[in-house]
Amino acid sequence: MDADKIDRQARRILRGNDRGGYTVPTAGLYPYQWNWDSCFAAWGFSTFDVKRAWFEIHTLFTGQWDNGMVPHIIFHKRADGYFPGPDVWQVPRVPHTSGITQPPVAATLIRSVYEADKHYGRVHMELVYGRLVSWHRWFMTHRVEEGMVAITHPWESGRDNAADWDAALENVDGSNVGEYTRCDTAHVDAAMRPSKEDCDRYLAIVQFSRGANWDEAVIAKDGPFRVADVGMTFMLLRACRDLLHIAAELDHYTGEIEGWIKVLEAGVARHWNPEGFYDSLDLRTGAFSGAPGSASFLAWYAGVENEGLLQLLTDILDRTAFGVASLDPRRRRFDALRYWRGPIWAVLNAMIGLGLAEMGHTLLAAKLRRDTQRLIAEHGFYEYFSPLDGAPAGGKSFTWTAAIWLAWAGPHARGRL
Ligand code: GLC
Description:
The chain has helices at residues 3-16, 35-45, 50-61, 86-89, 106-116, 118-143, 166-170, 184-187, 196-211, 216-222, 230-249, 255-270, 307-319, 346-358, 362-379, 399-409, and strands spanning 33-34, 73-75, 96-97, 144-145, 148-151, 227-228, 272-273, 277-278, 281-282, 384-385, 392-393. It is mainly alpha-helical. It starts with a helix and ends in an 8-residue tail after the last helix. The structure holds alpha-D-glucopyranose.
């Protein structure tokens, strides 16, 4: 492996996907700024251009709503070839945005960007601190139920078509969404994407929330989809811990954040499926999803220890060559190449690996990092990969895969936050 060469390629991908202050996940397929992709991009940029990393973060927060929510997509400039675009969401603000959020990895990755150069970053950290607090407060006010984070649309989870949402989606009526043309299948193979029925239901949920003027109270009461997402709970808990650290360092009041951490810690226990793993659950029916996958293993990232889970992870890693499959390959619904129903995603490997290392599972963490390194070195900077043989899939020259190489997986990476 020529690590220097791969480092250069990764930096070229980040620069190449830069649209002037924000980075698209990949050209064509995703032509706007996506929330958590951008945070990972900033982490990647911070390894060679801290100034550019902060720029990424500031452009992300230009999309923040008055109620504190940071949307999942910011439509800064007109771009063709993506559905559903701004005319579907119809959010009355500039820059145009979608109407839902995405995983709150910002506080965690911004902390890392800050720590890469505190002297330069201090003023930027002060600028975004209040914005992070108001986003987290929005979550705690509108989305946390019994300590678990509720999502109102599968896309909020970042794991769009994960098996976690199957049962809850069945209760969503997608039969009246009207005609539309999806664009993703023009870029990549339909066998690797969500199905048409799922897409109809995704759209039906958007239409409901749009009709409710994005009012969280109405959506909470009558929305067609409300699932406590185990991935979101773990990521918010982790992000609150990092926010607390930042608050202490900047001499801000910490009491409110400490309270949030306690609430979320209590919620983690409710995600425990007696089958032996942390699981999502449908808040409308109370049923567990029955989907042990990469999100379940974010426990360590959130500072949560669990012996049984460690055993399950070891079993799964024995079955895959390159890291954590998005769904346990022994499950009936496993599909090696269909997006979040089996494939490996470098960002999940990284978060799981970081958590394992921080909680003292050094060997397992090192294996995950080595496997991810080999995966990218051998197969390229793709969107995701088959857990069976590493076959690459989805978009290529992908921003967050390049960022993960630079910040965590590559031989020259720090390998920690
Ligand atoms: C897909 C992924 C989501 C990601 C987006 C842009 O929708 O499921 O997690 O943010 O693509 O890469």
